[in-house]
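Weekend entry, working from home. Most of the wet-lab plans are on hold until the incubator is repaired, so I used the time to fold the two sequences that have been sitting in the queue since the last round of cloning. Logging both here for the record. First:
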Amino acid sequence: MLSTLPVTGAPIWADLGTTDPKGAAAFYRSLFGWDFEQGGEEVGGYGTFRLDGRAVAGGMAVTPDMGAPSWSLYFRTPDADATAKQVEQAGGSTTWEPVGILDLGRMAGFTDAAGVAFSVWQPGEHKGFEAVNEPGALIWTELYTPDIEAGAAFYGAVFGWRTLTQPFEDGSYTMVYPGEGTEEDMFGGLWPLAEDPAEQEAGAYWLPYFQVDDIDAVVERARAAGGAVRAARMDLAGVGAFAKLADPHGARFALMQPEPPQ
């Protein structure tokens, strides 16, 4: 489950860049029951997806020249400018320099040493997620990367992440947690890109997982609303059920239905 610790390197926000904000709002409402609150001119129209009134993600319009529609993940930092220097020192690059957004906070965008995009948020008035680890909210994150060891080293250098490799029947899975947390504060996994045919063509990236309480029903609603199933349901004993989808404009995300607590 997603770490909720307010510490450096923990996931703090996610947002959707899409060429059709109205269509995207309708699609995700049909899946998760989200409402979309459109932002004003002072934030460039950047809006908020809400679940029962609580902020669970952001959304903004992008043009084709800005890149394909996609979900982006933000990790907490106490100092976006210092993180930018750490990214450069670790072999990554800055996509956009740290910038303040009114009194809400500061943000910056980067690519890691393998070219994977990610962002940081230095919270001000906007503290990040108001709901996680429940149906309709973010529950997990996953990095598809060409080199697990190098990826772990990069994010370890930037955020202080620590890793735990868990064996399972077909191999192993590397999980990450904040340096200020414990193994109980896992929030994501690292997976070798070459081992997942569903991801190889599009390339390395961060994938957000949203929790659902009936994965089959949500998959069918996604199909009916014009989405695509990129990887059919898979069940992992002791963890739960998973499926990978794309919205009608191609933004990739995943579903997770956790096993009930014993």
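Second, folded right after the first finished:
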Amino acid sequence: MTELRRQESRGAASRRLPTVADLRAWKGRRQLTMLRYFSLDEAAAAEAAGIDIASVPAEIVLDPHYRAVAPTVFSMTGQTHLEMGTPDDYLRWCGNALSRGADAVYCSGSLKTVEKLSREYFPVVGHVGLVPTRATWTGGFKAVGKTAEAALRLFKEVKAYESAGAFAVEIEVVPAEVAAEISKRVEILLWSMGAGAGCDAQYLFANDILGYTEGHVPRHARTYRDFDAEYARLQRERIAAFTEYAADVAGGAFPQDCHLIRMDPRELEKFIDGVDRQ
């Protein structure tokens, strides 16, 4: 772990890791912040910034160093139903994830799967609105719930997740008015990605915030820094450093005496004499 991560993790002393009960108790009282990030460095930055919730790839949240850098970020992980397999596969995978430090599991599978997990007391998060793995059923990658009929279906889906035992759902690319009205009428938490401030948490991807998204940047995203330009600058610096190194080797400027280990001249003489006798 880098010293920077150690310093950032020390800032967590003033707060603690929230529980599911805490998140439920905060419903309607304040907006929570939520990120999806992709590295331990981003996790440490989220901790230092006081981010409340994170959606974290399994390989990051299950890293043995993860909780050292993000001890108080409520961290959800998971895989899609396309990757996971059967409800029993989900059950085994989620049990492993929770035992290794995850706080909740994401499930894009059926309500039957959600219910199976929740009956085993796994904190489950569902997904409504624009769900990438199910987008063909809602017309592709576009907003969901723009008509009264579609909004009612969305409300029923949220209620079904609530009945199945999920404690939260991501609600993605839904009209803000619809999401706000649904949130008023349910106990389940709504985590908004492009669904307005009437929900319980605002959810963005770190790559969008930091400006290194490749390809389409969604309308709901906001960029706060231009890391793409910074990465390009760093690559130019890498190339320049490697070029200078190659030139030093070719010209004899590297290695210098300070980079070498020297032998006592008397030992060297004995070594050469021994070699010559072979």
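Plan for Monday: verify the second prediction. DSSP finds 13 helices and eight strands in the chain.
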